[in-house]
Specification:
The chain is α/β, with parallel strands linked by helices and 260 residues long. It has one domain: 3-Layer(aba) Sandwich (Rossmann fold). 44% of the residues lie in helices and 14% in strands. It contains eight helices and seven strands, in the order βαβαβαβαβαβαααβ. Strands 3-2-1-4-5-6-7 form a seven-stranded parallel sheet, with helices on both faces. α1 crosses α8, α3 runs parallel beside α4 and α4 packs parallel to α5. The two termini are 26 Å apart. The relative contact order is 0.14. It binds nicotinamide-adenine-dinucleotide. The site of nicotinamide-adenine-dinucleotide (NAD) has 29 residues, from α1 and α4.
Length: 260
């Protein structure tokens, strides 16, 4: 079934979306704009971000991007948030899809060059954006923060060298619960999505191997890995007023993969 992506579920809202050069950030940013939001994107990869901007502008969407920005640098994140807020008088939605992580088993995971950059690239990066955006969301009378955890926040996948990823995603999951508690009095909702395997740049090396892809499809109850849009639809719900009583929740959007 071909689902129309055009609608008004986010009409009147401004969204800051990180990682628009990658799969899930791009999928969220485009679907948000197709659902009526004004989107400000960002990414460290200027060329990749620009491809997303061009796609959006070709469709006539309300979409811009501030890039390149290294979202692991506190001052750069503050500057980004100030710029985005200045242009649009604030924003209502923060989607933290930018991420970097190394995958290696404990014997091979180098502390300085792999562990530390991965903790910064998947955990600090979320904290910094949430902290910088917090006063803007308060000033707006509330808003929605959407972070990405993973099945790896709770469980291990046999054979997967996801040691530091487990640590960062456990951190994102529990940090988001705390944000939900601290944000409640301000009308700020904070939730996580835990995607199953989604076809993006980050998973290209797995997905492009046909034999491996069949194996991966079989790990999902619905018989296929995910596409960025599968995640983006859940994010639209969480960003919208439809989710007005949803906070501190984690949504496994994973074709059933985490349940068998
Ligand atoms: N793809 C999956 O199967 C999957 C599964 C579970 C969880 N997730 C999570 O979903 C989120 C998005 O994943 P994805 O697959 O779309 O990733 P991706 O690698 O396709 O995209 C990530 C984007 O973040 C950008 N980025 C990295 N470091 C940055 C920095 N310091 N500053 C600014 N931008 C930076 C990259 O340039 C890239 O465009 C991540 O948190 C990931 O862990 C993904």
């Amino acid at each position: 079934m071909q689902l129309s992506q055009n609608g008004q579920r986010l009409a009147g809202k401004v969204a800051l979306v990180t990682g628009i050069g990658g799969g899930i950030g791009k999928g969220c940013a485009l679907l948000f704009a197709r659902q009526g939001a004004t989107v400000v994107g960002t990414d460290i990869n200027a060329a990749a971000a620009q491809i997303t901007v061009d796609l959006a502008l070709d469709e006539g969407l309300a979409f811009e991007s501030i890039h390149p920005v290294d979202l692991t640098k506190e001052a750069a994140v503050k500057e980004l948030v100030a710029q985005a807020a200045a242009v649009h008088g604030g924003f209502d939605i923060l989607v933290n899809a930018a991420a970097y992580c190394d995958f290696a088993p404990i014997e091979a995971l180098d502390y300085e060059t792999q562990w530390k950059p991965s903790i910064v690239g998947e955990l600090d990066i979320v904290f910094l954006a949430c902290q910088a955006a917090w006063p803007q969301l308060i000033a707006r009378g509330g808003g929605s923060i959407i972070n990405f955890a993973s099945a790896n926040a709770r469980q291990v996948l046999r054979g997967s060298p996801a040691l530091v990823h487990c640590a960062t995603k456990g951190g994102v999951l529990s940090m988001t619960l705390q944000l939900a508690m601290e944000g409640g009095p301000h009308g700020i909702r904070a939730n996580t999505i835990s995607p199953g395997l989604v076809a993006t740049e980050a998973t290209r090396h797995l997905v492009n191997d046909p034999a491996r892809l069949t194996e991966l499809n079989d790990k999902h109850m619905l018989g296929r890995i995910g596409q960025p849009e599968d995640i983006a639809w859940a994010a639209v719900f969480l960003a919208s007023d439809e989710a007005g009583w949803v906070t501190g929740a984690d949504f496994p959007i994973d074709g059933g993969a985490s349940k068998w």
